[in-house]
Amino acid sequence: MRPIETRYARSGDVRIAYQVVGQGAFDLVFVPGFISNLDLHWEDEGYSRLLKRLSAFSRLILFDKRGTGLSDRVDANHLPSLETRMDDVRAVMDAAGSGRAALLGASEGAPMAMLFAATYPERTRALVLYGGYAHFHRWVMPPERLDAFIATTETAWGTGATLPHFAPGRVEDSHFATWWSRFERLSASPTAAAALARMNAGIDVRGILSAISAPTLLIHRRNDARVDPDASRFLARKIPNARLVEIPGRDHPVWTGDVDRVADLIEEFLTGEPAVADSERVLAALLVTRIYDTARLGDRMWSERSQRFQDIWRLLVGRHGGRPAGTHGELMISRFDGPARAIRCAAALREAAQEIGVASAQGVHVGEIEMRGPPVGLTARVAIQLAAHAGRGDILASRLVSDLATGSGLHFIDGGRIALDELDEPLALVLATSEQHLEPACRSKPRPAEPATLTARESEVVSLIADGKSNAAIAAELNLSEHTVKRHVANILLKLDLPSRAAAAAFSARNPGPHGP
Predict the structure, then answer these.
(1) Which backbone phi and psi does 360 adopt, to 5 degrees?
(2) Angle, helix 482-496 to helix 456-466, in steps of 10 degrees
(3) pLDDT, tens digit only, all 517 positions of the chain
(4) Contact 243, 218 (CB under 8 A)
(5) Omega of the bond prior to 448 within 30 degrees of 0, cis?
(6) What gap in Å lies between CA 319 and CA 322, rounded to an integer?
(7) Residues 20/21/25/28 CA torsion (nearest 10 deg)
(8) CA 403/CA 509 separation, integer angstroms
(9) 314 in Cβ contact with 401 (< 8 Å)
(10) Helix crossing, 299-319 with 339-356: angle to 10°?
């Protein structure tokens, strides 16, 4: 992707850095949170994914608020009011030639977006508020916690010390933690960060909420680590005709977690159409292999064994029809066209680890990933978390893996359930076992498949397929996005081992159930 040009708008005596990307039918101004850096955003896979999704259907206008990123700093002794900072949005819109725009306010950017919508209703097309709030001390942190946070910025800024306050689920992700440390340093100095925190502490826009007339969508993660979800519930009650959608997760930044789900909600709200399925994504099985030292080997011996295992890993992945997809420390990620190949490869890697003298733990999950580049997003994060939860020698997989491995001869036992931040429901697990004489406690359903193989939602979808309805019609009837319906259809065909929608319709006719015809 070619570099995005950065320009500057004048707001009073302050220069505000901004970028414009995309050629959509309407303008969308993204008002960022606590800190930002226009250039650095594109280096994080989650942030760049979000910006690419938004700019695919809009003319996206990005900017660094005064005091952070590429914009001018503020006088720490004379902090600007929220009204002054809000007018930076107007200045950027004027400089970008935007007369009227939708606003996306994230975190601390949400109050600024709300104030703009109340002040300039004629220039506000719609309002999307992610993880927002109307009063800092009530819903973000009380004064004593703020003092402790500012002390942290003054003593440990630039080391990533603030990461647990914003994204506790990414603390163990060394790649992201390294990026976050750079994000701190390149977005603000310690003095500037403390000034930003003090500015945000004065936020209170409760008095202007009833004056907002623009259509408003609120998005908040149910276990948000930074902003109390009650903040958006309050906004939903006070902003006329606002709609609130709560999604799973605890990591606060809008570019973490299930970015595609957030982008889908925004796109459907602003365009009136469900998000179009991304043709660059495919269904795949991901295997994450983790090795570790339990024998307290010396550094040199451990390094030698680790390198030897990685060489064998690449060889075995290729032999089982997969592709190595990247390494993160002692984590090795590989992708396969089907879950059975991934499980068989995992079993071979388990034996190889034992022979070398290292411990292994492996996780397998099935989901959509990008066709190109290393696996990122929700599917990869779930597979990594399964590998982290797996015990020594275990191959821990999601139940969907065993469902899709029907007829493969593989055996699974029940692995319980695990709650993951980004999923609506606890994830059902299985353990792959090579003990063929054991009757599996969680055997995949025999063929031909029975209707109970499908979830209630999938049964509804297959019944509507039998009625001859298109994906768009099904999406409208079930109040889903068309992209979600396509995922359901793909899962139905895989679970029932059927070649087409027509075959699924015939299956539904033969097997009427509670959701059937």
Answers:
(1) -130, 155
(2) 90
(3) 456 899 999 999 999 999 999 999 999 999 999 999 999 999 998 999 999 999 999 999 999 999 999 999 999 889 999 999 999 999 999 999 999 999 999 999 999 999 999 999 999 999 999 999 999 999 999 999 999 999 999 899 999 999 999 999 888 788 899 999 999 999 999 999 999 999 999 999 999 999 999 999 999 999 999 999 999 999 999 999 999 999 999 999 999 988 999 999 999 999 998 877 665 778 899 999 998 876 677 778 888 888 889 889 999 999 899 999 888 767 899 999 889 999 999 999 998 988 888 889 999 999 888 776 677 778 888 999 899 899 999 999 999 999 988 878 888 999 899 888 778 788 999 999 864 433 344 444 444 444 447 888 888 888 888 776 777 778 888 888 877 878 788 778 777 776 666 667 667 766 665 444 3
(4) yes
(5) yes
(6) 7
(7) -60
(8) 22
(9) no
(10) 150
CA distance 199 to 254: 21
Looking at residue 37, its amino acid is N
pTM: 0.69
Backbone phi and psi for residue 225, each to the nearest 5 degrees, phi listed first:
-80, -15
Place of tokens 């139905």: 492
- Contact yes or no for 284/369 (Cβ under 8 A): yes
CA dist 387 and 398 (Å) reads 11
Which of 61, 69, 48, 52 has the alpha carbon at shortest distance from 104? 61
214 in Cβ contact with 192 (< 8 Å)? no
Burial of 277 (C-beta count, 10 Å sphere; 0-12/13-18/19+): middle
Bridge partner list, 417: 428
Chain centroid to CA 496:
29
443-452 CB burial, b ≥16 within 10 A, e <16: ebeeeebebe
Token pair for 179 = 């990026």
What H or E segment, with its residue span, contains residue 345? helix 339-356
Q: What is the pLDDT of residues 358-382, one digit of tens each?
A: 889 999 999 888 776 677 778 888 9
Burial of 106 per CB tally in 10 Å (0-12, 13-18, 19+): buried
Using DSSP's 3-state secondary structure scheme, residue 101 falls into: strand
Distance CA 108, CA 36 (A): 11
Interatomic CA distance for residues 186 and 36, integer angstroms? 8
Nearest to 26 by CA among 262, 266, 276: 266
Specify the DSSP element, H or E, that contains 63.
strand 59-63
